[in-house]
Amino acid sequence: MTTILVTGGTGTLGRLVAERLRADGHEVRVLSRHSRSCAVDLREGGPALDAAVAGVDAIVHCASSPRGGDEEAAGHLIAAARTAGVPHLVYVSVVGVDRVPFGYYQTKHAVERLVVESGLGWTVLRATQFHDLLVDVFERVAKAPVVLLPAGVSAQPVEAAEVAGRLAELAVGAPAGRAPDLGGPEVRPVESLARAYLRAVGRRRPILSLPMPGRVYRGFRAGGHLAPRRAVGKRTFEEYLLTRFGSALHR
């Protein structure tokens, strides 16, 4: 039986990774600030982190925060993994981190470099945006009388459980380096996805798409965050909406 540590294991993705690994018969340690078994703040490190990584066969690093500290956290995790002799570190990243100069993407890219240069056996999987993320964005912008969206931008949402399943597969295999990207099944204009969300929740809102200034917008408009040749995900955005909102779906 393989013992695997999942960082961020109480979050959206990490929880699914842990569930998949347990279902496949592996022993899982869940690390997060709120975990019952491995309560660790990766930004601080320390003896609790050393104990969490001791004796594991692989680490799946899902922990991330938009508030910052990811590079520091990864540094502590890598140092502890090296000391413990962990043979495999799997990191989940985002498609486009090397093409779109968005702050969060740049941080993810920096963590990728730390993983690659760690001296550990490593695997990096980049995925496109989760269905959940787009719904969160649409929920915020739909609070206004008019839904404002960036003109000319598309998205390729993917099911978080499918990414979790792929991470679980990679974790029990040999270090693979850069694994093939995992993209959702469809590349669609953001306006189309927003209309699907509005139908699902029964809201009527006009949509106004506006051009925006800056390099980040140009990167997204150019499709730097998309992986059309790796549209291997199965579950569509509408299928996700139907499951999430159920009988509230309006057509």
Describe this structure in words.
The chain has 251 residues and is α/β, with parallel strands linked by helices. The chain has helices spanning 12-23, 47-53, 70-84, 103-116, 131-141, 160-171, 190-201, 215-221, 237-245; strands at 3-7, 27-32, 38-39, 58-61, 89-94, 122-127, 147-150, 154-155, 177-178, 188-189, 207-210. The protein has one domain (3-248): Rossmann fold (3-Layer(aba) Sandwich), CATH 3.40.50.720. The strands form three sheets. It has a seven-stranded parallel sheet with strand order 3-2-1-4-5-6-9, with helices on both faces. Strands 7-11 form a two-stranded parallel sheet. The longest helix has 15 residues, at 70-84. The protein is globular, with a radius of gyration of 19 Å. The mean pLDDT is 95.
How are the SSEs placed, and which strands pair?
Elements lengths: L2 E5 L4 H12 L3 E6 L5 E2 L7 H7 L4 E4 L8 H15 L4 E6 L8 H14 L5 E6 L3 H11 L5 E4 L3 E2 L4 H12 L5 E2 L9 E2 H12 L5 E4 L4 H7 L15 H9 L6
